[in-house]
């Protein structure tokens, strides 16, 4: 609560004058001008920020009851500095900032590019903890080149922050290499239900509204944050080892969607048989009535379009395999996150691999046939989108353009080649070891190569380079008859999965 000085209080007036002089001196000595920073990611150079490591986010949203009006929000970031900082850059755009505090004291702020640039009253020393609180709006209505962030549904909102849209929703260090714990509170009017990542920690009811609180038990990348607000039903069931499974769906579709939702526990068991214990505290499916063109592996609560489950032209095996694709991401991409966005193939290649393997084992859609077809298209995919581990940069205004066929079936094709090269036993050991060694962390293509070499006992540098970085697809081990179609004769094939 702000204090109002009494008239005639010389001590208070003197203190205010000294404070004002101090603020002026700090402003005069601050570096100028403010500029957007980044950590130099090859695909998104201005994404992320140097000088600090976020330990936790506390997000507090108030939904006004309309998805065409801004939410009011408070974002609190606890971080540890890794360098002396005269300014702190956060990724944030689109919302309006009302105030900023650093360690409880008000701080100056301005915008530069897609950064919120904060000037604390005094520089932050290296190796110290700091707390930044930003009061702002979060606007779900976009114009121009904005992609992702809030997704407006038929009855509310959901989030789709991949690849670099979390900072359209809340201030953050918006790069998957800086994972953190999340606490999320959402206040919404009566009649709405709000759900977020992790487990619910409480609900508070007031006149006309309810506040839900959620907390993750494992670190999470900003691009995997999820908040659903709608006239939703939340269905609960139990997965393997007593795992709580909760699904969030339009309340009107409860009976229609139940046949699909009940498949999730068995799908988790199937994935555990392949790679080991599910890595998080809960899982579930969020079905949104919205047109997205993709599904999304938001951590512990994967986002799906309603149409995937209700359109009759989608075969049963296809829908189930897409469900497994997003489930597989909980291990590959969520628990083990990419060190850079060029390592995206580690996410999508593995998710596509298990999607295809599930279709083979449950529906007779042979993996070999899919991989042979992928091989035939692989050179065209590389020409259109770059090699799997060196995807081409997205065009301006098309940030999700990195999600091309070369990082889906093209990357799964490499995993097939690797299994042929080192043998099924070593390959299976590699998959299991990968998600254990790097659990709750970030990892790169080099890390995957080095682990594969240790497990197989072989030097795989040349093999990895040829398959992941060359412009032409190498010969497939064990299948010398497989041929790739000429690049100039056909258009790029879309990935086998609609999921990202």
How would you explain this protein's 3D organization?
- The protein is of the alpha+beta class and 500 residues long.
- The protein folds into 3 domains: 44-229, Sandwich (Immunoglobulin-like), CATH 2.60.40.1730; 231-330, Neutral Protease Domain 2 (Neutral Protease, domain 2, Orthogonal Bundle); 338-469, Neutral Protease Domain 2 (Neutral Protease, domain 2, Orthogonal Bundle), CATH 1.10.390.10.
- The protein has 12 helices and 21 strands.
- The protein has helices at 10-29, 166-169, 254-261, 264-275, 307-310, 316-329, 344-363, 367-385, 409-422, 424-437, 445-456, 461-469; strands spanning 52-62, 71-81, 88-91, 97-102, 105-106, 108-112, 115-119, 129-138, 149-152, 157-160, 181-189, 193-196, 199-206, 209-215, 227-230, 232-238, 244-250, 285-288, 302-305, 336-338, 441-443.
- The strands form 7 sheets. It has an 8-stranded mixed sheet with strand order 5-4-8-2-1-11-14-13, with no helix packed on it.
- The chain is globular, with a radius of gyration of 24 Å.
- The two termini are 45 Å apart.
- The model is unreliable at 1-30 and 489-498 (pLDDT under 50).
Output the keywords.
500 residues; Immunoglobulin-like; Neutral Protease, domain 2; 8-stranded mixed sheet; 3-stranded antiparallel sheet; 12 helices; 21 strands; 24% strand; disordered N terminus; disordered C terminus
